[in-house]
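Lesson 9: reading folded outputs for more than one chain in a single document. The general rule is that every protein is listed as its sequence immediately followed by its structure tokens, and records are never interleaved. Here is the first one.
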Amino acid sequence: MDAAVWTAIGLLAATSLGTLFYLGARIDGLGARIDGLAARIDARFDRVDARFDRMDERFDALAARLDTHLDHNP
């Protein structure tokens, strides 16, 4: 009877550890995919930021031209 109990305990422990390692590998894989998506999103935000920077430069240039124009005409 003792052998059957220890065999059941051993099988349960092996199954539990196997499941734990399997799920750990799956979670690591999902983490890598999420990191890849985050990198793509960051790249897109960098592009958007660059466009906003260009627009800021254009607005600053227009404001400078307007200031120059208003300063010359009293």
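And here is the second record, again sequence then tokens.
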Amino acid sequence: MKALAIVLALLCLGTGLAACGSNDSTDTAAEDAQAAKLEELRLEKETAEQKAKQAKAEAEKEVRAAKKEAAPESAPEPEPEPEDVPDVVGMRLPEAESTLSAVGYTTEPENTDTTFGIVVPSHYTVCEQSEPHGSVVNVLAQKYGC
């Protein structure tokens, strides 16, 4: 930004000198000096941009290395065995979800008797429970009874 401001100032200065009506030899010398200064500023700007890109790339590389070092080598959690699935039929939906969650399963509740789906989970009772698919157990929860 500083380089851009300097370039604009030099352009305005050069335009002002040209408007003064100086002779051709003075104008040419001033224009040559101005062009040389502009080229120097352009090169400085390019160099600064390249250094900034390099510094950014090095910083990103260091961050990735630090994250890699800080991340613990963790093994994936073993999936629960199907025989460990508790029977939640007849329970209220929140109670069934917490029971299944306690042994490592997530609950995927479905509903067939309301238009907008399950809005207030505590109003629903689990009527059916499927076999787990991985760590997900599908349950049919109905609001108006099974």
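What the second record shows: The CA atoms of residues 97 and 107 lie 6 Å apart.
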